[in-house]
Amino acid sequence: MKRLSWPRWMPIDPYVLLLLGTVGLAALLPARDTAADVASGASTAAIAFLFFLYGARLSTREAVDGLRHWRLHVTVLACTFVIFPVLGLAARGLVPVLLSQPLYQGLLFLTLVPSTIQSSIAFTSIARGNVPAAICAGSFSSLIGIVLTPLLAAALLGGDGGGFSADSAVKIVLQLLVPFLAGQLLRRWIGPFITRHKKILGLVDRGSILLVVYTAFSEGMVRGIWHQVSAARLGGLLAVEAVLLAVMLLLTWYGAKALGFRRGDRIAIQFAGSKKSLASGLPMASVLFGAHASLAVLPLMLFHQMQLMVCAVIAKRRAHDPQAQEADAAPPVAGAARSRPAVRTGNPAG
Hints:
mainly alpha, 0% strand, globular, disordered C terminus
């Protein structure tokens, strides 16, 4: 029998449809009272388990070997954790003309989260870029983001109603950092198991994220937070995010050229440096924003779908570029080339 698959012509990531369906479920049947307490506890456990798996999957050896291509990784990190936040701060001038204050906080948080891994690799591979560099760049970004994103949130959102406090810092350590380090420490023993069951654990990843989304949006519905968002505000948010993505795509491509990177490296920088991770951002927002997490993650969810659609088009055009054969001559990153995974577009776990 033929397995059913998602049509390639469909522009919407099927997982985003599941996320939207989860939001709809939370709007119609939000968790209340005892059910809300159960959902909150399950969400907390799911977040910890997610970051445990992230730690167990990240190969320390490949990360260390990848440091040999340090200029590329520093460029991606600068795009992710310096240029993106600067643009997010500049968007403050759009309040209250285009953005409400809560939506702006969500937009600023979006600019602070790490880059993706899987989708960056997928698009780099499609465009015939430096895939090993994309693997290492995404891994470094995710690893550093576990510590750097909360610190940036404390600095940029702490005095702006972002909900960051000493209690949030403790939650970050207990729910994110400790499980991640535990996964790294146990990787030697559980790594083969994770490799054998990566498809099942991938489903667990996605299911956990859906639970986090349902809990956050349920709490937002119960507290009446969604009454603060109008269709005009959502339209303004989409316009701002479209400009943000366009600026980063142009900056990463032409900036990398100005820095002297070869074509394959420029492709890796463009896809890793212009994207934000939904999988990392959702759990972090749940910890940092608490009851206001539903509005905080809305910009990230919209940006995630937008970046997938736009980058899919760009990757296909890069693949047909007359200079695409130059990608095959790109210098490999030591240790990473032997770990090139099968690629799939639209994986939010990246």
